[in-house]
Give the backbone structure.
Amino acid sequence: MRHRLANMRSDYTWIYPSHTAKADNAKEDSAYRRLYLGIRQAILDGRLHPGEKLPASRDLAKSLGVSRNTVVTSFDLLVSEGYLETRIGAGSFVASSLPDREMTATATHEALDPTRKATRPARLSQSATRMLAYDRRFPRFRVARPFNPATPDLDAFPFDLWARLLRRSWRAPALDLTIPVDPLGMPALRDEVAKWLRQSRGVKCDADQVMIVSGAQQALDLIARALVDPGDVIATEDPGYEGIRGVLAASGATLLPIPVDGEGLQVDQLGKGAPARIVVTTPSRNYPLGTTLSLARRLALLQWADTHDAWIVEDDYDSDYRYDGPPLSSLQGLDRQNRVLYVGTFSRVLFPGIRLGYLVLPPALIPVFRGMRGFADGVPAPTAQAALAAFFAEGHFGGHVRKMRLSYGERRAHLRELIETRASDILQVLPSDGGLHLCARLLTAKDDVDVQERMVHAQLDCRALSSYYHDKSEENRGNLPQGLVLGFAGWKKNVISQSFDELINLVRRT
């Protein structure tokens, strides 16, 4: 029986395309690979059937105008991948055990055409679905724009020094740099972090309690995995940082928003409804309002946690920057029952790309988290950990914080003055003693989300205060406070002044 190739086209050029689809925009494929791809595609889309005989390598080479070695190499590759099979004395045949032709062709076409939509949506886990329900809706700019509330002054960070510390760590790398052993992180960095927290924040800890993480959200993810079962209640501040809600919701917990007033978290609201397993709070400074948890409420919260066998997560995201006095002591420092897990990050103190933070654990939880870390990501990049340990040990960290505290304090005062002298009829600054942003209420009947959208078009990263509240439904929008969250740390005073003029003009026109 004459084979299909001869029946379809005597010169066989249809299986030897001059160009092939290249997903990575690479250079043209070699001759043997173009032939391999042509035959493979003919098999997958059904033009060559299982069991069908191919022409002899010498005949095919002559027909296509290529060397016999090109054909032999292509055939060998197809045989090794299972598309062809050889029979001694008979030649080469399309493999007889190929999958169903239509299914194979469909899969191949979708692989070759990544823009083709799947016929059915991807089936997600309940964890992913719960997490994605809290997708953050804030604008994203490639380069931080005024008035992003989480941007430090990157121009002021000593990157030349940081590069030297990185290079030094690699010149004669220690064993724990090349082969990290301790899942809690590098001992040298953990020791420096523990010393800093004891001195500056009154945290009661030693290096054994410190776990190095890639950021506060990873710390929260580990906490939820270790301490929360589906159906448990996690209490969060309302308003609060939206980025943590998706992480916590992924555990299957029910999020319980607790209102914040002038004294911080309303602890008495924790007694309403099912008891919370965890309370996540920012006692030094609520995000974004800037209010501080009063001493009476701190003590009440600690008592509540002990009574209900609950845990407190203290998120101390930017407490190094307090301008009206020294940094406040931590809630963890008041804890006598070891109910507080203390979380911090270096992303705002140094630079966002460092992706390092810390979690201070109660002693009873150290073996739990050490064991869990071994099944997660191991440890963050040891090189950055080593450089940061040296940055601490040589006094650079403390010096940088002191320098930036002065600079940020001046920028904060400048922005406050701009609001009070140029926009007191439309904005009212809320009390706050530190941080990288100011929060201001809108005094006119304006929708802060509309204002935010106008700012984005003007390349200003102003955040709507109402976006930080838990219930942002349409029916509740009229009940939410309207305001703007304005970062000041990342820009010099002349940039703040110019950008503020643009912002106010847009607000007045909204």
